[in-house]
Amino acid sequence: MDYVKKGAWSPEEDQKLIDYIMKYGVWNWSHMPKFAGLSRTGKSCRLRWINYLKPDLKKGPFSMEEVEFVIRMYQSLGNKWSAIAKELPGRTDNEIKNFYHTHLKKHLGTKVEVKPKSRKKAKQIEMSIQKKPLITTCPNIQGPDDQSLDFTNSSSSSYITFDENYDFLEISYQDNDVTSIVNQVHDDNIVILESNPDSSTSSSSSVDLHINDFMDVSVHSSNVDFWLDLYLAADNLKI
DNA sequence: AACCGTTCCAACCGCAAACGG
DNA sequence: CCCGTTTGCGGTTGGAACGGT
């Protein structure tokens, strides 16, 4: 049998693979296809089973908890997708990798420079960040009342404030007090912060993170191209 | 309706690691 | 230890679906 099928799996092929594995289990991926009546490579069968057909897979969009977990794991492990997947039951390495590339990648690139006032403070911040790092993300997010939180054309300062646990407190922007909106974003939610990647052409798009004496953290930028978005955990969140 | 650019993910590929004779 | 085979991993991509004009 020389012909090897490639591309999308048909429902019939899926069923053959499921039936075979349910009956005989996985014993040898490379030999199994011909016994299962499949014109596929073992590699293709393995991938199809592991990433799609296995019964204990969780289907559907990532929950907020899963998103947060993936972000934190990525920030501590990097692109160790299988290691991350092991800690996230029901999600495969491929799924997490796809999720990262489609939803997170473009938002995680910006480094925020921390300029603590003292060495002690620096250590505190370092530990705090390890525990609960600043996270990033999505442009053009809709606020709770469908208010679009668009900071793209900022020509003034923006502040975002966290408490000593790095929990989000408030945000102020120009003359507009958006605290009322933000207050609806609850503690469990992730606040995302980044400079606009599209503004990379501009000469000085730095963002400074200032630690004040109260151990609050505020982010300040007077750069025209700086923008902030909030990544809301509300049910209407689209990611 | 037709076209076109973008988004997204299933599935591919190459390579590395693990296995086993 | 060696070497062929199998399994596992991470980067990449083809094309379907979607959204805008």
UniProtKB/TrEMBL annotation:
Residues 1-57, 58-108 form the HTH myb-type domain. The keyword Nucleus applies. InterPro entries: Homeodomain-like_sf, Myb_dom, Plant_SW-associated_TFs, SANT/Myb. It comes from the Eukaryota. One of its GO terms (biological process) is green leaf volatile biosynthetic process. Pfam families: Myb_DNA-binding. Coiled coil: none annotated. Keywords: Activator, DNA-binding, Nucleus, Repeat, Transcription, Transcription regulation. SMART domains: SANT. Residues 1-53, 54-104 form the Myb-like domain. It is found in: Nucleus. One of its GO terms (cellular component) is nucleus. CDD domains: SANT (cd00167). GO terms for molecular function: transcription cis-regulatory region binding. The keyword Cytoplasm does not apply. PANTHER family: MYB DOMAIN PROTEIN 55 (PTHR47997), MYB TRANSCRIPTION FACTOR MYB117 (PTHR47997:SF36). This is Uncharacterized protein.
